[in-house]
From TrEMBL, chain A:
Any GO molecular function: 3-hydroxybutyryl-CoA dehydrogenase activity
Domain 3-hydroxyacyl-CoA dehydrogenase C-terminal: start-end pairs: 130-216
InterPro entries referenced in this protein's UniProt entry, alphabetically: 3HC_DH_C (IPR006108), 6-PGluconate_DH-like_C_sf (IPR008927), 6PGD_dom2 (IPR013328)
Protein name as catalogued: 3-hydroxyacyl-CoA dehydrogenase C-terminal domain-containing protein
Source species, domain of life: Bacteria
GO BP annotation list: fatty acid beta-oxidation
TrEMBL record, chain B:
Annotated site (Important for catalytic activity): 141
GO biological process: fatty acid beta-oxidation
Keywords: Oxidoreductase
Record flagged with keyword Oxidoreductase: yes
Location of the 3-hydroxyacyl-CoA dehydrogenase C-terminal domain: 187-283
GO molecular function: 3-hydroxybutyryl-CoA dehydrogenase activity; NAD+ binding
UniProt key word Oxidoreductase: yes
Originating species: Thalassobaculum fulvum
Protein name: 3-hydroxybutyryl-CoA dehydrogenase
InterPro entries (alphabetical): 3-OHacyl-CoA_DH, 3-OHacyl-CoA_DH_NAD-bd, 3HC_DH_C, 6-PGluconate_DH-like_C_sf, 6PGD_dom2, NAD(P)-bd_dom_sf
Segments forming domain 3-hydroxyacyl-CoA dehydrogenase NAD binding: 6-185
Amino acid sequence: MVRYVIVDTGASRSFPGPHPFLERASADGTVTVLLGAGAVAAYRPDPSKAAILVELGTECLGEATGENAGLEGSNTVGFARFRLGDGDPSDLVELVRQPATDPASVEVARAILEEAGLQVSVCSDFAGRILDRLIRPYYNEALTRLDEGLASAADMDLTVKLGLGYPEGPIELLERTGLHHHHDVTKALFETYGTRHYAPARRAVVAKRRAEREAGE
Amino acid sequence: MSEIRTVGVCGAGTMGSGIAIVAARAGYRVVLYDTHEESLERARRQTEGFFGKSVERGKLTREQADAALAASSSTSFLADLAECDIVIEAVFENLEVKRALFGQLDEICPDRTIFASNTSTLSITEIASGCGREDRVVGMHFCLPAQLMKLVEMSPGLNTSEDTFKAAWAFCEAMGQRPVKTKDTPGFVLNYFLVPFNNDVIRLIEAGVAEPADVDRAIKAGLGYKMGPCELLDLIGLDTQVLLCEAFYGVTHDPRCAAPPLLKRMVAAGHLGRKSGRGFFTYDRDAMYGG
Ligand SMILES: NC(=O)c1ccc[n+]([C@@H]2O[C@H](COP(=O)([O-])OP(=O)(O)OC[C@H]3O[C@@H](n4cnc5c(N)ncnc54)[C@H](O)[C@@H]3O)[C@@H](O)[C@H]2O)c1
């Protein structure tokens, strides 16, 4: 079993509560895991490690490691356990590598995550990784089409559940996990991609402004 | 509106044969029409097979299955639809073909007959236009496989009367289906979300963000979907996805709906998905989905 050390850099979106991945950490080891909101800022290269894992939010891994004209890559990988807003984290971890990341480091990272019962999808260092990049335009469209009266929220949700077998419809899911979070993620994606499908939908903007006002009161 | 007893289904392909099963199973008399004898023959075999399995699985009694089979007939003569109270068309996804069919049916069927279209991408209003009974045309979009999926997206065209929509809705419920109301806009709800979403998946793979297996795992484990998008695309058929893109992009001009270059290359290479044994994944050619 690979031994790994967890360095706490602040509140972690990936591991907000107890989890086997946290319990299995050691006091020393060949792998370092930077956990929490400050992980990117706390990152320091250390070629002596088998792997360094950096928790990511909406950042790219390159913000921690630096980039070099497409040749970047080291023993460092990024990771984020997929989670929608205030919802519970899923069992899916997106593991981020750069073009020249050492494959052995990717495999070590994959192994320690899988041993803790998580599932791992490897992806390149793009904004939104796999899931946010794919689902945010869909959620934006659902919100926009709700405004335009394509169908009622209940019918839209029911349609994707019955027709596509999704466990939850887009509107109920965003309401449950916090529309203002959808705003924050799409805003970050929009900054990178610039296409209208990532621009936060009106309902998300409204929710965000209300959340800000309430926080200010 | 008078009661619906006899249901006409036009097109004995993938969807039409499934819709005919749904109606017969619910106790309606069903006339299945197709211009191709082979399609009708295949539909007859599949229907018998399906009801046979329903009995084996205890979903229908032998008597119910026999009654449903006895109530089902098929024909290659359009005139045999003259007694139908509703006709559901599931012919090729082509506006002219559908319009011509409704025009001919208008001359054959009595005034009371409702015309329903199972179109996935065309406008109900445009299909109805000029058929002679625009007020009695309604969108009824079943899901694949129709004999198993309960959802039906129902859309009124601009000229559809409220009575027609209500009667078709009640009929849909009486068949044991679950209708949802949507506007007559391209793709209704399901395809409106699904077609561009699937294109985004293809573009993400083309951009080298992740491999198909990683995308599918992420979607299933992260969101709890039963099927990953690459698996689903292989099932739909990549050639079908191209057709859907063409239909959608032509109407919406939304760049997300345009067929991604990788999709076109895969189709050109004969990687059509399950049906050709290879798409995003490779398959044993003889394996039937869900078999
Ligand atoms: N396949 C799907 O997943 C799906 C799902 C929902 C809706 N639809 C829609 O259902 C319709 C049919 O699709 P399908 O997949 O069953 O197609 P299909 O190609 O399997 O079947 C079409 C059938 O219609 C027959 N046909 C064509 N023109 C005809 C005419 N003028 N008169 C009588 N019969 C005619 C053909 O011989 C063929 O048997 C389309 O409008 C499609 O968009 C398809």
